[in-house]
Inverse folding.
């Protein structure tokens, strides 16, 4: 009987591990696709000043109405995908997620005009290395990162508040502090989020449709970790064009 129970438990663990791998493969596939769309959209707009001119007044008049829409719309997409998750279909979530990644790329097109291409590529490579390392750590560690994640989420709220305050203060020192703290927070969040998503994938509490939708939401979570880590590192170490 003991051997029978042991075999059942081992079989259940194998099924859970396979389910987690399948789920995480989907998460990372959607995330990488979104990053490719973001990079393509950013390159497309940055390479054409007429397109950039639709977002900002090139004569120094500030952002256009379309520019503000492009800057603010991604936040609306994130809120919609999270708060209307149960009402949205899987196909609708995919459309929203991919549209969101394109809008982020358009809004990030400015960094291609501000920073040198070599520093952007180098920062991207460093970001990919850090993200990959923490993703593997989060996936393989046996330690529960839940408490660690709560601390990081509180720190993230602090970063958001400090960023809003610095919008008015224009403090270069505070900007550096926010960037250094942001690198630490998003590096840690990568490991925490990967472990959380792995546990979701290994569980059997969701139906097929819900789990497919959670794949998109998981991709969005890791996409945000990657993009924010990249931007924080670029603000710290990126070389600006003369």
């Amino acid at each position: 009987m003991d051997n029978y129970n042991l075999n059942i438990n081992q079989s259940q663990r194998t099924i859970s591990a396979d389910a987690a791998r399948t789920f995480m493969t989907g998460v990372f596939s959607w995330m990488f696709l979104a990053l490719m769309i973001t990079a393509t959209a950013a390159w497309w707009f940055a390479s054409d000043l007429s397109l950039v001119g639709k977002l900002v007044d090139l004569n120094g008049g500030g952002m256009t109405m379309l520019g503000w829409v492009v800057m603010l719309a991604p936040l609306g997409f994130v809120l919609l995908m999270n708060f209307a998750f149960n009402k949205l279909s899987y196909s609708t979530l995919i459309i929203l997620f991919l549209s969101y990644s394109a809008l982020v790329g358009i809004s990030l097109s400015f960094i291609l005009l501000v920073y040198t291409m070599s520093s952007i590529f180098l920062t991207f490579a460093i970001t990919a290395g850090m993200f990959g390392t923490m993703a593997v750590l989060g996936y393989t560690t046996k330690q529960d990162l839940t408490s660690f994640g709560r601390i990081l989420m509180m720190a993230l709220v602090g970063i958001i508040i400090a960023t809003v305050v610095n919008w008015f203060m224009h403090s270069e020192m505070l900007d550096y502090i926010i960037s250094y703290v942001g690198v630490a927070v998003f590096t840690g969040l990568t490991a925490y989020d990967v472990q959380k998503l792995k546990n979701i994938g290994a569980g059997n509490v969701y139906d097929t449709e819900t789990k497919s939708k959670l794949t998109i939401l998981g991709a969005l979570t890791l996409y945000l970790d990657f993009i924010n880590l990249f931007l924080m590192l670029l603000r710290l170490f990126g070389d600006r064009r003369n």
